[in-house]
């Protein structure tokens, strides 16, 4: 039980980078980017190929991050310069990346077992939190910079920020690129942790990322950007812990993971709205009681 929880904590931290990438596109930019399923594998493929060819694991990880940046730029260009619908841009790039990733790997999967990786000399639970803190600090500094503020404003009201002279095409490309870079970073780290990269490793990543974002929001809320990014990381950890606990139920199997994910997302989506409705009903009842009380006092006053 303890081992599975430690494993869930480790996986949650590794997938947190992917969740942060999804947060940038879906929450900040309000852009439905499905490139994620492809760019995750791109990061894993580049890292695995470079490590298997004797390159430094750190260089391989950074190269995987760079591959995600390039994939994001392509999606951004399709949308901004090609004037293609955002959803369709992501789908087209996701499809293209399948063939590109196969070209990178030259085969459906690559094993890097017994090869050097970031986790050879340092345990994942030691180094990954450090990387997560560094990424959170850098990401929040970026989001509070001039271009980061323009990025957030583009997601809130694109027409207004464009009227102030901001280049919204550039901010979109930067945001989508950074998002897929973080997703690819997650893929590169997970490939090293699991000791292999698979061409289908990114399938369903967008759902996992959204689940982490939604769970983080539902449990911890979001008062500001810093609080929001931290809640996304914690949401990723909670998601992995819930999945690990669910898989310990006797009648559930590993093949049910997609079903478990769907159920978790549904609950996370329904709970906030349910709590909002209950809160509104309580406020309405309280208001009605106050109005009734005031009416009774006026009636009594008039009788006197």
From TrEMBL:
Topology within the bilayer: Multi-pass membrane protein
- The portions of this protein that span the membrane are 12-29, 58-79, 86-106, 118-139, 170-191, 203-222, 229-247, 259-278
Extract the Pfam families matched here.
Answer: BPD_transp_2
Q: Which GO terms describe its cellular component?
A: plasma membrane
Report whether NAD shows up as a keyword of the record. no
Molecular function via GO:
transmembrane transporter activity
Q: Note the superkingdom of the native organism.
A: Bacteria
> What's the protein name?
ABC transporter permease
